[in-house]
Amino acid sequence: MHHNLKISVIIPALNEEESIGLVLNDIPSEIVEEIIVVDNGSNDNTVTVANSLGARVIQEPLKGYGSACLKGISMLKQDTDIVVFLDADYSDYPQDLPAVVKPIVTGKAEMVIGSRMSGTREKGALLPQAIFGNKLATFLIRLFWGFKYTDLGPFRAIKYEDLLALNMIDTNYGWTVEMQIKALKEGLRTVEVPVRYRKRIGQSKITGTFSGTVRAGIKIIYTIFKYGLLK
Q1: Rounded to an integer, what distance in angstroms lies between the CA atom of residue 167 and that of residue 188?
Q2: Which domains does the chain have, with CATH numbers?
Q3: Which of 2, 33, 168, 209 pairs with 64 at a CA distance of 20 to 30 A?
């Protein structure tokens, strides 16, 4: 992929020492300008591993996926063009990054969601509660805004200037859905591309526990209604 656009990758991480090295090694470094790993309070060797592989590691002690993403955004180089969000648990395939950024590079979109629903996923990679939550959330978004997403997948890319204009605020479970709703409200051209998905390494902080699943589900639904009724 030959282009002059600068691509930055933000990876929120919490106790991912077993997986972060695999993620970093699989990122196509020839097209990526910078990689920021946001350590969200790990008490294992996540930071050591990430540093040893050349990532920029920054700390965000305030817990929450959204908090880590916000910190990563604040530390980006100002001349970057495209921001990619990628999980640290090796459930996504970093090799799919060129496909995720391609619609932006070719001028067809401002935001791209990597859809696990339309891609190929390993059996058991997405738990039933996550699949149900995704279907409900995307149904409600379609009801409010008339746009058919298939997934709230964490693997996504967005133009840097458009990301800043979204004024993201969510600090935890509502981050992905907030971005997708605000992109629609701002009129960003948004597309989905199929991405591969596998079982994560280690236990999920969200869907790995029943209480985490419930909390995440409530926050996602709340976020949709909050923006839907604010129209």
Answers
A1: 14
A2: 7-229 (3.90.550.10)
A3: 33
